[in-house]
């Protein structure tokens, strides 16, 4: 049984991620976390080395990837392929649950080293 706790929360200028399942909390292969993003916030363009599955439980967002922009609303799930450049914009405050293989890393244009996702480890 895993219970969310303050030490598994990461806040960035654009969103708050609450780590749920991860290798550091008992999962051997997968990581899951909750993303809360306020209306109007936009994350940086980035790509992730592993496929991600996002299920929106509240609000809505726009995701731009592979040359198109899609709107995702509460109750919908989007699958973002590995290594596809994407940008997330909160058209309204949203909450999403995300699942990914635990070894995924993020690459941001202009940065030499990939970023490790602390909430997913």
From TrEMBL:
The Cupin type-2 domain covers 35-97
**Entry coiled-coil feature ranges:** none
Record-linked Gene3D superfamilies: Jelly Rolls (2.60.120.10)
Q: Which Pfam families match?
A: Cupin_2
Concerning InterPro entries, the annotation shows: Cupin_2 (IPR013096), RmlC-like_jellyroll (IPR014710), RmlC_Cupin_sf (IPR011051)
- Outline the segment boundaries, as ranges, of region: Disordered: 1-49
Q: Domain of life here?
A: Bacteria
Composition bias of kind Polar residues appears in 8-17, 25-34
Q: What is this protein called?
A: Cupin type-2 domain-containing protein
Q: Which organism is it from?
A: Streptomyces virginiae (Streptomyces cinnamonensis)
């Amino acid at each position: 049984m895993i219970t969310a706790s303050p030490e598994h929360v990461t806040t960035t200028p654009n969103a708050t991620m609450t780590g749920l399942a991860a290798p550091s909390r008992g999962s051997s292969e997968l990581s899951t976390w909750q993303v809360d993003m306020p209306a109007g916030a936009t994350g940086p363009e980035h790509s992730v080395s592993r496929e991600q599955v996002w299920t929106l439980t509240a609000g809505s967002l726009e995701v731009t990837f592979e040359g198109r922009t899609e709107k995702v609303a509460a109750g919908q799930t989007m699958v973002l392929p590995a290594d596809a450049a994407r940008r997330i914009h909160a058209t309204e405050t949203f909450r999403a649950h995300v699942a990914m293989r635990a070894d995924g890393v993020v690459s941001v244009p202009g940065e030499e080293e990939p970023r490790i996702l602390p909430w997913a480890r």
